Known about the structure:
globular, 5-stranded mixed β-sheet
Amino acid sequence: MRSVRPAAPARPAPRRPAGRPRRRRGAVPLLALALAGLLTLVLGGCGSAADAGGARTKVTIGIGGQPLLPYLPTTLAQQLGFYEDEGLDVELQDLKSGSKALQAMQGGSVDVASGYYDHTVQMQAKGKDVRAFVNMLRTPSIVLVVSPKASREIKSPADLKGAKVGITAPGSSTDFFLKYLLGKNGLAPDAASVQAVGGEAAAIAAMESGRVDAAVMVDPAVSLLQKRMGGQELRILADTRTPQGSQAVFGVSSYPAAVFYAGHSWLEKNEATATKLTRAMLRTLRWIQDHSAQEIADAMPKEYAAGDPGVYRAAIEHAKPGYSADGAIDADGARAAAALQKSFSPEVAAKEIDLGRTYTNDLVGAAAR
Length: 369
């Protein structure tokens, strides 16, 4: 039951000094009118959710591995204050893998997931309506790397039969990528022995120790591992950090990867909020295009460099071509993502996937206006 604050005791009316003329009731000084008009003009130009009483709209975003470069725009938007500019109070939760971000979104502990587009296709096959609404990354930026201490010679994905291969987590996009490459090279999706190694320091340690023979990794972990190798070159079996690499693996140069996605019911009920999130992200993507890798690195939390700012800057420089410039999801890329899922998942292969229900570019169009 809400308590009611007792009314403050009435104050006596102030005395009017002798000789001062009494103001006619209802009259307002011209200066006050002018100031009020000016204030109205200023506030009228601030189109944020905070206009009404200063309140901000709370949004919780679950991220599939916050320090990883595919998700850099999600954090950068907060670092630059772009969510706040839109009148949003955004809480970012690092959930370490895309599969955990998906689970959190489904369970309602986060409103929106910052994860890979693949999951929207996977969910539609399960009869769940989940839609991506802004694209941050137009190449997957996933790399299949051989461990410097591999227990066998591995020259191609076809050599991974029976090998121990690291992924971030089961059901993550790194897991999907591995299954796709195994199938593409004539192997069963479960031909390799999959090990969950995370996506950061733990993945590097697993590769350096020989706990795994290979791993599906993303930057900055790939670049940090390369530096720790000294002069020895990493053997890379597949690299989708560039449009050219994406073309070689998937047959398309633009493949939707890191996106914001949410349940369709949440998007319907919170269209204005989703549009503001999209606008903040489009502004961030433009900022990335207009600034150097060093400026981007300087804007990010220092701990994300893992103690090596030079490697972190170089990794961002390598990743920059993969970031989307317009936030839109390409139809050919969406079809390629669906084909990837169908290649190893009988559940997806058995369903007719309506790609128009897995993503929308409507909010990107509305936010850009």
